[in-house]
Fold Pentapeptide repeat protein.
Amino acid sequence: MLRSLAALCAIWLAVAPASAQASVPCEAMLGDLWGEREGRSDVRQIDGTKLGAPAQLIKAVRQNTVIRGGNFAGWDFRRLSLTNVCFVEADLQRSLWDEARAPGIGFIQSNLAGASLIGIQAPGILLRDANLSDVQATKADFSDGKLEGGWFDGSIDGLVLDNANLSGFDFSCGITLSDGCPLHGSDKPISARGADLTRAKLSTFHRYGLFDIELDGAVLDRTEISPAQLASLKGLLISHPLVLVGGAMRIELTAAEAQALADDVAIADPAVKDPSFDCSTANSAAEKTICLQDSRDLADADRLLARTFAQARKKDSQLVAGQREWLKQRDACMGKEFPTDCLRSAYADRQGQLLGALGERDWLKPGEAALFIDDELPVSDSMRQTALFARLAPLLAQASMGYVHVERSGDGQYIASGESIGANAHSCTLGARGLRLDPMTGWYSVTARGSNRKIRVVQIDGDWLRVFASGHPYGEVAEAEADFASCGARAAFEPMRRIMLPPDVLASYAARAELEP
């Protein structure tokens, strides 16, 4: 499993930090963020704390200069011309750069909060761990530049890039930042209305969606985006080709193909997801709780259970009486100390019971294998049958931060193996042999040695797979489950959807998922 995890990390490392652009001079001078390439030894270094006025700075600075430290808060740089100058750990709050000529400039671990960079000419700019809160950069030229950051330094809250030239700009994040650049604390949106993002690299920046970046009128032409970012474009008019990125793969989509996918997501994955009943007629306290805005996971669970019950009752009509009894138990949760936790457990247990009643349904024949991944492009079943989706499937598998590979052996038992990477490179691992469906719980389980206790590992519901407790089993009852699936604090196995892959690609995951004997 460790060898497999290293392979998965290598795929993301190959994409995220390795694509340094020669057109970012400060990166060449200082080295890359990841420490893989050292900076140049011949770069001129200046102590910024000894500079007290713009005239001193101009006199001291030459091309290819690093200024370390210094208090330049409120300084007026508008009339200055600086080429390939890198400010490191400098205070530049409220400084003025409007229309300045500063090609190749860099701001590294520097504070630009409230600064004005309107119309600045700064192609090849480097913004590394910089505080860009409330920076006004309307009509700025940041072409071929780069933004990168870490968990504790920097911010881009309220950054305004309206009508800016961001062509070829690299919004760079890494494998440990699976929720996008953590520079953005979500207190204020980023505005890039009308910005030119032609050939810009966005795929690792807020990779789970571009919801809090205002892109009205922005030009996305061959812009590199992730599958989840494409899904977040639903409702927008796509006028240019886009490049979909997943792991080491890149696939260019025509505007029509990208539009078809985004439109399909809008239909298949509506924003409003109600429970199976009409919330306006909710009677019990449990139903009213399920309808609360902050209980959307319960609404999802209710809708899923209703669908599963409809399938199961066709097989066994006697389940109707059991369902009525379960509804009483569900409603009794409102008298518990933690009613919502009780409701979640009640729905999960009942869902498993109904899946167990449905039986195995021969979803995987002996000798066959299946791969389940994060469903970051939630298109409809009909779209998943198209040639377009088949072309994207290997890329979607590489784009997923986690996977579970399931194989059925000749004796009917199952082998499951998987991994997932979360924030800060926390990870999950899963590995189990000898799995069989437990009809009492609906979980594919391992029988404990020396007893008949069934240890729950994975649950299969149609094309969906769930790992027990999302990889976080706790308590004495679930202690044994941790031997087969476990996660670091900031990682989890989210529900995964089966992806159909060419045989050779599926076989590569089988090799990666090889278990220790």
